[in-house]
Design goal:
It is built from eleven helices and twelve strands. It has about 325 residues and is of the alpha/beta class. The strands form three sheets. Strands 1-2-3-4-7-8-9-12 form an eight-stranded parallel β-barrel, surrounded by six helices. Strand 8, helix 8 and strand 9 form a beta-alpha-beta unit.
Length: about 325
């Protein structure tokens, strides 16, 4: 199987000031990363954030993306991912097109159907059943593509009714900015395989085996197989994205696994082979990334902000390979 070449992103959520954010964006670009991602969360400290296991995030995504684009030259800018229920879809389509225009074609548009019920509740937004949220996501995807085409929009669905105008501005990227969609179940992974340019296999639980009797690694492989099945002849054009949100360069992985297990209250034995864990020396990490790409296609790797410096040698070593 021919896989996409590696590229790397940084998920950044820690900046609390303009200077910190500008400096971070320039540093990410200088280290050779392809993309700087924000996330679409709004909770400050409190019970709702604790219920979501979510650290506080000071910067809202749209303004932060535009600011990061303004202080960089080639760095791609994205949100991993916009929750469609937190935004008016037609307005989000225009905001995204504007960022693509003002960044001279550097937007990556991640969208999803929403996940955290306590955040919805805290924000006063109804948390509909999963089927309804994915139905709505399908209509938002159609709206984004229609808006970005520059042609007159005429969409009448169960959740969206947008008509009577052409979308402006027309994005710089042709035919449109790349879409990232991810998930863990068959319907949304199949939707992503049909409609997205980047498919994220999403976070895998840390149970030794899941209800289907699969280990975390086997679960990631299952998700990739669902993508392949639905993508058919599109597969060669799709990037598979994954995020080792525990990324630690160390000569003592056993101690690090013990620390991580304590932080998140899991069995340390499940960590060495987990798709969202990348621990070891740079050489060991390289071999793991190559194995992950072979097993479940992840050529697009997003690391957390706290690891971007120590991980950067692998960006230089593997980027484009």
């Amino acid at each position: 199987m021919i896989h996409k070449p590696f590229r790397f992103g940084v998920q950044a959520t820690r900046a609390t000031s303009a200077r910190e954010w500008f400096d971070l964006a320039r540093e990410v670009e200088g280290l050779g990363y392809s993309t700087l991602f924000v996330s679409d969360h709004y909770l400050g400290r409190g019970p709702a954030a604790r219920a979501c296991s979510m650290p506080p995030q000071h910067l809202a995504p749209i303004a932060a993306m535009a600011a990061a684009a303004a202080v960089t030259q080639a760095l791609r800018i994205g949100c991993r991912v916009f929750c469609i229920d937190y935004h008016v879809p037609a307005a989000l389509a225009k905001e995204a097109a504007t960022i693509d225009l003002l960044s001279d074609g550097r937007l990556e548009m991640g969208i999803g159907a929403g996940l955290h019920a306590p955040e919805y509740q805290a924000l006063g937004i109804p948390f509909d059943p999963g089927k309804v949220r994915v139905d709505r996501l399908e209509e938002v995807i159609a709206l984004l593509k229609a808006h970005w085409s520059g042609e007159p929009i005429d969409l009448a669905g169960e959740h969206l009714n947008v008509t009577g105008y052409a979308g402006l501005p027309v994005p710089v990227q042709k035919p449109r900015p790349p879409l990232m969609i991810g998930g863990n179940r068959k319907r949304i992974l199949s939707l992503a395989a049909r409609e997205a340019d980047i498919v994220s296999i999403s976070n895998v639980p840390f149970d030794p085996v899941n209800a289907a009797g699969l280990t975390p690694r086997q679960e990631a492989i299952r998700r990739y197989e669902l993508v392949k099945e639905a993508a058919t002849d599109r597969l060669a054009d799709i990037e598979i994205e994954g995020s080792p949100y525990f990324t630690v360069v160390t000569d003592d992985p056993a101690a690090t696994y013990k620390d991580i297990a304590g932080w998140i209250s899991v069995d340390a034995d499940v960590l060495p082979d987990h798709p969202n864990v990348l621990v070891g020396t740079l050489d060991e990490m390289e071999q793991r990334l190559l194995a992950n790409r072979e097993d479940f296609g992840t050529s697009y790797v997003t690391v957390p902000q706290n690891a971007m410096g120590t991980f950067a040698p692998l960006v230089e070593r593997l980027g484009g390979r």
